[in-house]
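Progress note, project year one: complex with S-adenosylmethionine.
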Amino acid sequence: MSGNPLAVAEPWDLVADGYADFAPAIMRPFSARALEFASLSPTSQVVDVAAGPGTLSMLAAEQVAVVEAIDFSEPMIARLAKDAAAAGLTNIRAQVSDGQDLPFESDRFDAAFSMFGLMFFPERARGFAELFRVLRPGGTAVVSSWAPVADSPLMRMMFGALAAADPDIQEPQPNFLSLENPEVFESEMRGAGFEAVSIQRHSIALTFDSPAQMWETMVRSSAPLELMRHSVSAEVWAQRAAVMQAYLAEKYRPNCPLSTTAYLGIGHKPQD
Ligand SMILES: C[S@@+](CC[C@H](N)C(=O)[O-])C[C@H]1O[C@@H](n2cnc3c(N)ncnc32)[C@H](O)[C@@H]1O
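Model obtained:
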């Protein structure tokens, strides 16, 4: 089992609607980049593992025949299904499932994605093995994971605010055994059977009109913040929220770009 509090569905259930409203603006450019690596066509079938509210699924649905989206959080899948229906995207099928045990036959998909999802699995090797299994020979997998927090001014500011409010929270230290380390990332993909593996760094810069807008984005879309809010009384939360808002008001200059960086791991299932 993993000690990561984000390896279970509950924090994602709690944050689902806020995440769906605020996070895709941050996450969508990474999904758009991932789709570029997969040579999709209007007949392609793709799977989006740990799809959340469908950040990648919604973009992919405009380019391919079928998108199968799975996530272990029921509220995330409910929101994905609702938003897909509202957008008239009838080729997205959404279901609740664990990404370590996919409900699909082998050798089916032209492309398989897990954007900022597989990185949380207690058994990443099973996550990679399942992506490999469901791909057809010659198919492409793209998986993304954050670079170390130290490389991302946006993440540093967010963790700075969290640490100011709760001294038990420290800025995460680099974990060289995780996908933050591109050599581990490459070796885990190769270990699952992928060939021609490449790990690409991708950065985006975000701006906020004001510290208040940054705070709203953070508080509505962050699973760690939702966990904190649910673990303390309303009074303690109000105190911590005030400390975090004061921290951002002091450190963030309106419209100043802050970058965040991820690694995208691309691999191919060998042809038979
Ligand atoms: C940071 S969100 C990413 C959502 C989306 N892929 C995106 O790029 O915006 C992480 C998602 O992974 C899901 N997740 C984490 N572990 C999972 C697992 N073992 N099986 C399925 N989904 C999982 C969470 O429920 C959450 O929706």
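Residues 107 and 217 are 39 Å apart (CA to CA).
The radius of gyration is 18 Å.
No further modelling is planned for this target in the current period.
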